[in-house]
Amino acid sequence: MSAVDEKTMEKIVALCKRRGFVFPSSEIYGGLNSCWDYGPLGVELKRNVKEAWWRSMVTSRDDIVGLDASILMHPKVWETSGHVAGFSDPMVDCKKCKARFRADHLETARCPEKPSKKPGECAGELTEARQFNLMFKTQLGPVEDSGAVVFLRPETAQGIFVNFKSVVESSRVKPPFGVAQIGKSFRNEITPGNFTFRTREFEQMEMEFFVPPDEAGKWYDYWCETRRQWYLDLGLREENLRMRTHGDDELAHYSVGCADVEYLFPFGWSELEGVANRTDFDLKRHSEASGENLTFFDNETNTHFTPYVIEPAAGADRATLAFLVDSFEEEKLEKETRTVLHLHPRLAPIKAAILPLVKREEGMVKMGQELAKQLRDAGISAFYDEKSAIGRRYRRMDEAGTPYCFTIDSTSLEDGTVTVRDRDSMEQSRMSAQEVLPFLREKI
Ligand code: ATP
């Protein structure tokens, strides 16, 4: 496979558009800055990423439960969490070209005015840094007064903290236990960019793990390693993944430990996920502000305590982008170059392509349609295609990341076998049509 730095984002963005992974939002009206839509293949890929996360965090464990909190929450939540006062980034403006940059990202930012490159190189003067709150405001109900102002949540985590009591009372959980949630968050980012990496509307996959305070260190180490391993198990190459521990100067004031899972994108090492020891800060603050008791009563020791929280907070869009980038290859073959996405079979939007060799051969068509239906009935996404030359159909499936193509030919009609072609090795072998479903189940 080619090295990651040979890949260019432009090629990946073009593939995403061409094959229906990601489209610019509202494109017929010229698009909307930093907003993207997931197309037919992209929506399946992202769903599979979220499904893999949910399975590893919730379904396969007995100590984590799920939650789906609303995006609009009581404004007090954000005052208490510190977001109203402090959820801001320093921003500078260029007085000449009017571009706006994050003051702490000036090294990597690009001036939009050509041929200049760096902020300020267009001979413009940069303003002093000002704090800019990243929360989107809207209003609840028809009256436009200040009392109706609410925020679009900038993180899903607070929805978990404010439901702590309800979850404990309804679900028989006991620390150490976790609450997981997947959902949209919104941040009015100063400099969105790098395709879907930094957008103003995005999806988070967050889990708050509540533990006895003296076990926090142990669980922090556990979640750092468990989350790193999740990306590797789904096929990210180890050399492109690293853990970066935050220095003391980078830590949020309530946090005593934080490490980022970083991926080597074509634009450099960037955060996929943060794992933080948030201490008892959030529960204590919400308890003080709401007057609700958010401690846990341990009836073995007859004591109340406020759990510490270990939080792995990931982005569904960033993970999806990392899997796309890591799996992308332009492979030089003897006579051509093929573009292929080596996606893990569990993530691949289409698991199997069913390809009758000859379009007008009734027997082949019937056998192919039956096989496709059998797979779909079993919950495996199958794509049936009888158009164009077989080589071109294989290439289209390579670009979509489809791990297996099953071809039906004249031998199939005689002995009930099909050809299976492996996306990565391009090797072909025969198997009985009846073996296809168990074969795919095992691979996925
Ligand atoms: P960054 O430093 O890149 O702005 P962050 O440290 O502010 O990210 P967190 O608040 O830790 O991010 O959010 C958890 C995860 O949510 C991030 O690791 C990332 O995957 C995702 N995320 C955060 N902001 C965005 C965004 N603007 N676009 C896409 N995903 C995001």
Verbal overview:
The chain has helices at residues 9-19, 40-59, 75-81, 83-86, 157-161, 164-171, 216-233, 281-290, 316-327, 362-377, 390-400, 410-415, 436-443; strands spanning 22-24, 36-38, 64-66, 88-93, 100-102, 130-133, 137-139, 149-151, 177-186, 201-211, 241-245, 257-265, 268-279, 296-298, 303-305, 308-315, 328-332, 337-341, 352-356, 382-384, 404-408, 417-422, 428-432. The protein has two domains: 38-81 and 153-325, 2-Layer Sandwich (BirA Bifunctional Protein, domain 2), CATH 3.30.930.10; 350-443, 3-Layer(aba) Sandwich (Rossmann fold). The model is unreliable at 1-6 (pLDDT under 50). It is globular and about 75 Å long. The protein is α+β, with helices and mostly antiparallel strands and 444 residues long. The protein binds adenosine-5'-triphosphate. The site of adenosine-5'-triphosphate has 16 residues, from strand 10, strand 13, strand 16 and helix 9.
Tell me the CATH superfamily of the largest domain. Answer: Bira Bifunctional Protein, Domain 2
- The number of domains: 2
- What composes the largest sheet? 7 strands, mixed
CATH topology of the largest domain: BirA Bifunctional Protein, domain 2
- The number of helical segments is 13
Uncertain ranges: 1-6
Shape annotation: globular
For the record, give the distance between the C-alpha atoms at the N and C termini, rounded to a whole number. Answer: 22 Å
Radius of gyration: 25 Å
Please state the average pLDDT score: 94
- The CATH architecture of the largest domain comes to 2-Layer Sandwich
Count of individual beta strands: 23
